[in-house]
Every structure is written in C-alpha cells, then in structure tokens.
Write a structure and sequence with these properties.
506 residues, alpha+beta, 5-stranded mixed beta sheet, 3-stranded antiparallel beta sheet, 15 helices
C-alpha cells in the first residue's frame, strides 16, 4: 500500500489532485497517476556518460592545479614569515603579530598578499585568506595535505578542514583531522557546506576551551562588507552574533509581512469601494523578498544607533548625525535629457540615467561633479560641504584607492604624496593620489615603489621586481567655464611650500 502525504498544494486550487509527495507535479504534467513522459535514448545515455567522464576528469585537473597553487602559496608565506622575523630582529620596535609558529612582523605578509591578489585578480582579503589557509594546510594538517596532493579532495574541502581545525593544537588537532577525514570517506558526495558544518561540529566537540572563551574568540570575526552583483545590485554581508543576525532577519521579515498585508488590504478596500470600476489603488508589485530588502535598507539608512553613544562636548550623540555617503559621477547630458548615458557609482560600477536623475534631485549633502563625456573636462563642481579644489579634482579622478585592484572609496582613503614632501615632492595633483590606509602603510613601510605620470597613471613596482599599472577610471580636470569655451587648458592648481610651510605627513 502506498500513502501520499499532503505536503504541497497546487496554486490552481484544483482540490485533491494538487496534493503530491514531491510538490506541484500536476503543473509539470507529472502526476503520480502518470508514468514518466520521457526516457533517454541509448545514444543519449552513452553521450551523457562520456560528458560526465569529461567533467570528472576536468574536476581532477582543477584539483591538481589548485594543489600546485597551494604549494606555491605556502612557500611564499614561509618566505614572508622568515622576512618578518628578520625585520622584527632588525627593527625591534614594531609590535609583533603572532602566527601559529611564533611572533612575526606582518608587513612582508601584507606585501605578499597584495601581489598575489594582483597576479590572481582577486581582492587582497581573498588572497590573504587563501595564503593563510595554504600555509596552515602545509604546516599543520599533513593527512589533509596528502589528500590534496593526490587530488582526492579539492581546496574547498581542505579549506573547510583547516578553517574549523585551526583553533585546535597538538594531539587534539590530529584527532580532529582523523575524524573529519573519516566523515569525508563515509560520505564523499556530501555538499561542501554540509561537510564544513560537520568539521565545525567535530572541532567544537574537541575544543578544550570553555564555551565562553570560544564565544569571545568567535565574536572577533564580526564584520560588514559588500559585494557587487551586477550593474544594479550589490550584496551587503553582515557577520555577527547568531542571535542578533537571526533577530535582524526576523524583524525585517515581520515588518515586510505587515507592509505586504497592509498593501493588500488597501487594494482590496479600494476595489470593494469602486465595485466594477477601477479601484484607483495599484497593488504593490514587489515580491516578499523585494519588500524585505527595501525594509532592511530603510532601517539601516534611517535608523538611529541606540546601542552606541559617542558624545560631543554637549553630551549629544554624534552618531545620530552620521549619514550614508556615496560618490556618483553623472554625465551632464543625462541630467539634461540629451541621452541616457549611464553614470558611475564609485566602488561599484555603472548606474542607469533614471536613477542618476533621481539622485541629483534628492541628494542635498553629496558632492556633485559634472564632466564632459568626450574630453573628460570638468564642467562644474558644487557642494554643500565645500572642499579644497585639489581634493575635489582627486576625488573625481581617482574615485578609490589607486593601488591596483583596490576599490576602497575615496572618502575612506588618505591623500598620499607620490614623491614624498620631505624628498622634494610638491603638493600638486600630479603628485597626489588616494591610497587606503592599508596600501598607504604598505607603500611607506615595505619595498613597494610607486610613481605617477602626468596623466594620473600609477606605476607600481613590487618587492619581486614585477611592474603593475593603475589608470584612473574617469579622466577629469578643473577648467574655468571661460577657458573651456576658448579651449584654453587651466594650469595645475597646487599649494607652494612658501604658502604652506608645514610639512606633510608623507
């Protein structure tokens, strides 16, 4: 006897025929009462088996290549560790940064991560994480390393083992590695996220630290970051306390459900009042997920940080005055309806013309810079918060950190003298550029070298002697409207030393 549980109901509301074990099968013409409507032919079976074999072979080749990359990464980190210890002995003043095998100066590791990021075309955070994982794999997880070297498992599963087991030491780590590899052997087709969860569970069972100590260590991983998805979308990642994150999700969903119910009620009331005529109230076309995203943005952009208080001289919480800021470059033709050329959101990418016009109409506190689409010349610059002309120029030209591959927005960067002030460098736009604090520090405290051409192109040379170039995205310059009409370029604006005798910090 077969029993059918009522799990899903057909959206068509066609009664009992819509209830099936596997979902809405009736919608696909696959009712439990009917046999399958397709079978592979012999030729299709043979061809599919061959293609699956090709995929399997390609997957093994990928694992072999990843193992080679991990070997090179681990060796680079070993060199960086040796350099760091040597620098620490020589310098003697910089606070040590601990690693698994002892204290080490972190600047060589930063330098390696920066160059690996350029070679691989990934962020420095990804490069740093992969270097660290490869180093720990080769130094502390020999059984896992053997599986990686013979292409039995890939880097994704090795990374899961290393990430969860790094907290353990000595014999406890050996026991952990043995257990998780047994789990891998028992179920080799388990998904990587599922296997990673198994690794965390085993590590927690073996961790000799008390729960409070483990919780404090885990909470230090809290962070917020963004990832670009497309021209119009980006992801906001929040890694925090599990209870807080679950609470945030629940609150957003609860508000979204209330908004959706209210929208449906208003539409139903209007339809009832109108009878057969047009109700005059459009139904909200957004899905539940879209409303959740809009509610979350609303809460973050307009809410007050009630759990934190940073007082000014009068005792007022200055955090209440902080507002979100973005930098958008808008073609002047888009604002005058001459064309629909997209603008540019710093740190993300293109934005369509309709969004640009809406931003221009409603943003009273962001700095607007309009440039000519063909010459790149600056047509106008205005702001409710006036800044120095050079800084406006650099903000429009650089948009973000000028280290290759870094997209840290300009407003979070330092203004760096490419040729140091102390060595005769002038404060001109051809000798200034935006560098985030990380790469600013790297440039001045490592063998990395940078020079800038008159066109704002940076030429970087790494400690290994490899060269990398970074070109500014928009080409802009400040030009007086009269000079623009006459075609006369405006000379570079800069602060002479006679006018500002105080030395710059770099």
């Amino acid at each position: 006897m077969h029993s059918i549980n009522k799990i899903h109901q057909s959206d068509r509301g066609d009664g009992p025929s819509g209830w099936n074990v596997g979902g809405r099968w009736d919608d696909l013409g696959m009712s439990m009462k009917q046999p399958p409507i397709w079978f592979p032919t012999v030729e299709e079976q043979e061809r599919s088996r061959a293609l699956l074999g090709e995929i399997e072979a390609a997957e093994r080749a990928v694992r072999v290549a990843e193992a080679a990359r991990a070997r090179a990464s681990a060796e680079l980190m070993r060199i960086a560790v040796v350099q760091g210890r040597r620098a620490l002995r020589t310098r003697g003043t910089r606070p040590p940064v601990p690693v698994s095998s002892g204290p080490v100066d972190d600047m060589p590791a930063r330098s390696v991560a920066a160059e690996v990021a350029l070679v691989r075309g990934v962020t420095r955070f990804r490069a740093k994480a992969d270097l660290s994982s490869a180093y720990l794999l080769h130094e502390s997880f020999p059984a896992t390393l053997a599986r990686v070297e013979d292409a039995t498992i890939g880097q994704d599963r090795a990374r899961a083992i290393v990430d969860a087991g790094t907290r353990l030491r000595g014999e406890v780590r050996d026991v952990y590695e043995e257990r998780v590899l047994e789990l891998q052997d028992a179920c080799p087709t388990r998904s990587v996220p599922g296997f990673a969860a198994d690794c965390v569970r085993v590590a927690e069972q073996l961790d000799p630290r008390c729960p409070d100590e483990r919780a404090r260590a885990e909470r230090r991983r809290r962070v917020v970051f963004t990832t670009a998805l497309s021209e119009h979308l980006a992801e906001l990642h929040v890694i925090g306390d599990a209870t807080a994150v679950r609470g945030m999700e629940d609150r957003v969903a609860s508000i979204a459900r209330t908004v959706m119910r209210d929208n449906d009620r208003q539409h139903a009331d209007a339809a009832t009042a109108a009878g057969e005529t047009d109700p005059g109230v459009e139904q909200d076309p957004r899905t539940f997920g879209e409303i959740c995203a809009d509610v979350a943005a609303d809460l973050i952009l307009t809410g007050a940080p009630t759990a934190h208080h940073v007082a000014d001289a009068s005792g007022k919480n200055i955090l209440d005055e902080i507002r979100a800021t973005v930098q958008v470059t808008i073609p002047v033709q888009a604002l005058t309806d001459l064309n629909d050329e997209p603008g540019h959101l710093s740190g993300h990418g293109p934005l369509p013309a309709d969004i640009l016009c809406a931003l221009a109409d409603t943003a009273p506190v962001w700095e607007r810079v309009f440039r000519h689409p063909h010459t790149g010349a600056l047509l106008a610059a205005d702001s409710y918060k006036p800044t120095a002309e050079q800084r406006r120029f650099l903000q429009a030209r650089d948009e973000h950190c000028r280290f290759p591959g870094c997209d840290r927005p300009f407003r979070r960067c330092d203004i760096d003298h490419t040729t140091d002030w102390a060595r005769g460098g002038e404060t001109t736009v051809t000798n200034l550029g935006a560098l985030c604090r990380h790469h600013h520090t790297l440039r001045h405290h490592s063998p990395w070298k940078a020079k800038q051409t008159a066109a704002g192109v940076y030429e970087w040379t790494s400690p290994t002697g490899r060269a990398y170039r970074d070109k500014p995205e928009p080409s802009v310059r400040f030009v007086d409207s009269e000079e623009l009409a006459n075609g006369t370029p405006m000379p570079d604006t800069h602060d002479r030393r006679e006018r500002n005798p105080a030395p710059a910090p770099f």
